[in-house]
Design brief:
It is built from 21 helices and 16 strands. The protein has 485 residues and is an alpha/beta fold. It has three domains: 241 residues, Rossmann fold; 129 residues, Helicase, Ruva Protein, domain 3; 103 residues, Orthogonal Bundle (Arc Repressor Mutant, subunit A). A hairpin with a 2-residue loop joins strand 8 and strand 9.
């Protein structure tokens, strides 16, 4: 088809026009029938968001994705182009991507009247049929719909009501395209009103002049919940005209979070060669975000974006890389203590409530890391708080008694891997704990788990932990021991 150059050739080939919503619908049906995957890199939505999206497309609806930040709303919208036909014909030189068989603009209509079947056409690839606009308070009617150009009117001696004096905005120029407005509530109410007729009746009105242009557009909107976005809201009549509203959400399974972070994190080849990210460290990064989403210090209405885990993962790798460079290790693996290097990546990704502001961003970040450590620890080892009966023998007794006998352990950040592991091997009871509750681990994971035990026991009050200038000292928690006795 792309070899056809004129309207006459297009007619002879038997080409028939269809709306963009029909394109999406027909191509979706083909993919569902062939059991082909619809989206790449979208995790955790197979049983929730994606079925609702498929139903909306089959219903030929305009769509609003409603959800907190970092929930892949725009990522999904951008992939919808894969459901479009690969190429469509347009009248050559048309501003509105006019269909040669059903032209809209004065330019295309007159060109076809003049040239007939000799009218030249060009082919528009589906990647060129995606238009995105971020809603901001300064967006004007002229930006999105258009305005009258007085210079054109004067030069051609035309009335302001004549279509030829129109300067088209971004929406008319998106005819036969997917048009996305991100953060819809931020669009001023009067601008939202201007969308009403476009969505329902297909006409536009500029400076009092009404113009019938049945635009063929698949509208996609994205928005945060109104209870969070206090800068504005979606007006009720506009909501009423959007066919389907689809609620997005954060990953419900840790494995989905891990897949998203691994896919989106940007690492250099040098980092990949030098640093091995252990599965435990990767899981802890995801747990930090999960803890933040339920924390009393974090504003859960604003959400905790997947960008937190992506930035934290990248920062974790860089923290480990820097440590290796300073210690002289050519290659290394992540340590649990490296997690505290991701605090700056967390600080800018969470919005704090009043209590969190009082604590301070860095303190809250450290608290979230500590909470994640405890949660990961309790997924593997028994909860010390539940071992309260006198007959219960604590599995941590050997470890705590080693520290109680006057021993301490200094884990220095820039120790080489050999020196660091030697310090952990000196602590009695850790190997037995791992053999009993977490057998068959790799060497890197064993030392990660040893670290995890120390940090978690200090968070749970069984050990004391003092920050040193460039590391941490673990020792007996004297006050806790006296209280227990």
């Amino acid at each position: 088809m792309q070899q056809l150059k004129t309207l006459g050739e297009l007619k002879k080939a038997g080409y028939s026009s269809k709306s963009i919503k029909d394109e999406l619908r027909e191509n979706l049906i083909k993919k569902i029938t062939a059991k082909e995957p619809l989206f790449k890199g979208i995790f955790g939505y197979d049983d929730t968001v994606l079925p609702e999206l498929e139903r909306a497309i089959l219903s030929r609806h305009n769509i609003n994705f409603l959800g907190l930040r970092g929930q892949a709303k725009t990522k999904i919208a951008r992939q919808l182009t894969e459901l479009l036909d690969e190429y469509i014909p347009i009248v050559e030189g048309s501003e509105l991507n006019d269909d040669p068989l059903s032209p809209l603009s004065f330019f295309a209509t007159e060109k076809i009247k003049t040239l007939g079947d000799a009218t030249p056409i060009q082919w528009l690839h589906r990647n060129e049929r995606y238009v995105e606009k971020l809603a901001t308070p300064d967006v004007s009617i002229a930006d999105i719909i258009g305005d009258i150009d007085p210079i054109k009117a004067a030069n051609f001696k035309l009335a302001y009501s004549d279509e030829r004096v129109m300067h088209y905005g971004i929406i008319p120029r998106s005819n036969r395209c997917i048009f996305v407005i991100n953060e819809l509530p931020d669009l001023q109410a009067r601008i939202q009103v201007a969308l009403l007729n476009i969505l329902q009746e297909g006409d536009i009105q500029i400076r009092g002049f009404k113009m019938r242009i049945p635009l063929d557009i698949q509208f996609i909107f994205t928005a945060n919940p109104e209870d969070y976005t206090n800068r504005g809201s979606i007006i009720t009549p506009l909501k009423d005209r959007i066919g389907s509203q689809i609620l997005t959400h954060y990953p419900k399974e840790l494995e989905h979070s891990l897949a998203i972070t691994a896919q989106e994190a940007k690492l250099t080849e040098d980092q990949k060669k030098r640093v091995t990210v252990t599965s435990k460290a990767a899981r802890l990064i995801e747990r930090i975000a999960m803890e933040a989403r339920t924390s009393e210090y974090v504003d859960n209405k604003s959400g905790v974006s997947a960008r937190l885990t992506i930035s934290a993962y990248e920062s974790l790798v860089s923290t480990t890389e820097r440590r290796a460079l300073l210690s002289g290790d050519k290659t290394t693996s992540t340590r649990i203590s490296d997690l505290f290097g991701v605090v700056p990546a967390i600080n800018g990704k969470i919005e704090l409530v009043y209590e969190g502001e009082q604590e301070g961003a860095a303190a809250v970040a450290n608290f979230l890391i500590g909470s994640a450590l405890k949660k990961e620890f309790l997924m593997i080892f028994p909860d010390p708080a539940k071992l309260k009966k006198k007959t219960d023998v604590s599995p941590y007794k050997v470890v705590t008694e080693w520290f109680a006998s006057g021993n301490s352990s200094d884990l220095m950040v820039f120790d080489s891997d050999i020196a660091f592991r030697k310090s952990l091997d000196e602590i009695e009871g850790l190997n037995e704990l791992i053999s009993q509750y977490a057998p068959n681990l790799s060497v890197d994971e064993v030392y990660n788990t040893k670290e995890l035990i120390l940090f978690a026991l200090s968070e749970l009050g069984l050990l004391g932990k003092n920050p040193l200038g460039k590391g941490y000292q673990f020792k007996d928690n004297y006050l806790n021991r006296i209280f227990s006795e």
